[in-house]
Fold this sequence. Notes:
Pfam families: Rhodanese (PF00581), ThiF (PF00899)
Number of strands: 13
Strand order of the largest sheet: 3-2-1-4-5-6-7-8
CATH superfamily of the largest domain: NAD(P)-binding Rossmann-like Domain
Order of helices and strands: HHHEHEHEEHEEHHHEEHEHEHEHEHEH
Shape: globular
InterPro entries: Rhodanese-like_dom (IPR001763), Rhodanese-like_dom_sf (IPR036873), ThiF/MoeB/HesA (IPR045886), ThiF_NAD_FAD-bd (IPR000594), Ubiquitin-activating_enz (IPR035985)
CATH topology of the largest domain: Rossmann fold
Number of helices: 15
Structural class: alpha/beta
CATH class of the largest domain: Alpha Beta
CATH architecture of the largest domain: 3-Layer(aba) Sandwich
Keywords: Nucleotidyltransferase, Transferase
Oligomer: single chain
Organism: Actinotalea lenta
GO molecular function: nucleotidyltransferase activity
Amino acid sequence: MQAPHGASRIPPLVDPGPALSADQVRRWSRHLLLPQLGEIAQRRLRASRVCVVGAGGLGAPVLLYLAAAGVGRLGVVDADDVELSNLQRQILHGVADVGAPKVASARSRVAEIDPAVDVVTHHLRLTADNVDLLAQYDLVVDGTDNFETRYLVNDACVRWGLPEVWGSVYRFDAQVATFWGAPPAGVPAVQLRDLFPQPPAPGEVPSCDAAGVLGALCGQVGSLMATEAVKLITGVGDPLLGRVLLIDALRARWTEVPLRGGAHGETDVSGAARAGAGAAHATDAAAPSVGEITAPELAGLLADGSVTVVDVREPMEREIASLPGALPLPMGELVRDPAAVPADRPVVLMCHHGVRSVQAALHLVAHGRTGVRHLVGGIDAWSLTVDPSVPRY
Length: 393
């Protein structure tokens, strides 16, 4: 369901703040010229409280753009200090900040943009004991780089009824979505566990430290996340609720897959009223079910030819390592044409580490396919457990 151009199916998250001063009118004049925003939306931004978890590759552009957009209070959560290797993508920080806490660097940089922004620094690592600090905000933006914190943040947002803008970057690929366990009436609830029910096993998916990441892609994704935050705060446009945006930077392609919520029963929103996020709403559709298969299990099925394997990686990846007999169908092509996947046998989706394959499988199930599974751990798992002659990359 898409809203008409400029309209939104989501009401504004924040009430308008005080009237703008003459200097503020000049500062945000380009926003005020937009019919979809205008003065009232700008006053909503100034009254909003947004917590950005992570002041790294994604959090950096989010903080810069939200500060420039006029968000009144920015919370910054990060336990790390600035390192030289961060400067390739974490544009909040400079050479002079190396060795300093990232939250301190973020505070200084935001003050250069707008000293009137109230920056609240949380120099800590989120745990189950302190994650409820998020409840003091209207909106959470998750720019973290580890699965433990991502699930911790999302579970807390569901518990408190907070909307969450989420992004992930890996090498040249990225994903962006908005989750909300307690959206307004008429909007299905959706959360991270509807996309990935459980985090991968430790070490199953390499971090950016081990695998690398394109710095400029972090800027693209962070800008999108900031845009989603502005839309939610002001009630403009159609947020990425129920949709996951996939970005393939190497091929310059953006696609999206649908995401349905409801696999987790009634959302616990006992704190929703305190968080100002509205009442709980039951989803109108059950979450799609996607099965898993391990590499040794797949090897047994391939031996008797009872399954079709679809490789959703890009051609250059298949040149490095491939699975004999797998049907090559890059993710973008599968999303555009699900019927390209043969329907005569059960299907197993595979990719590099098992991330894109889950999304591809969800997309097929959403289009009515049954008997769909994905290869846990991707072709790297195949190399580790079945055929060590297949290169890892």
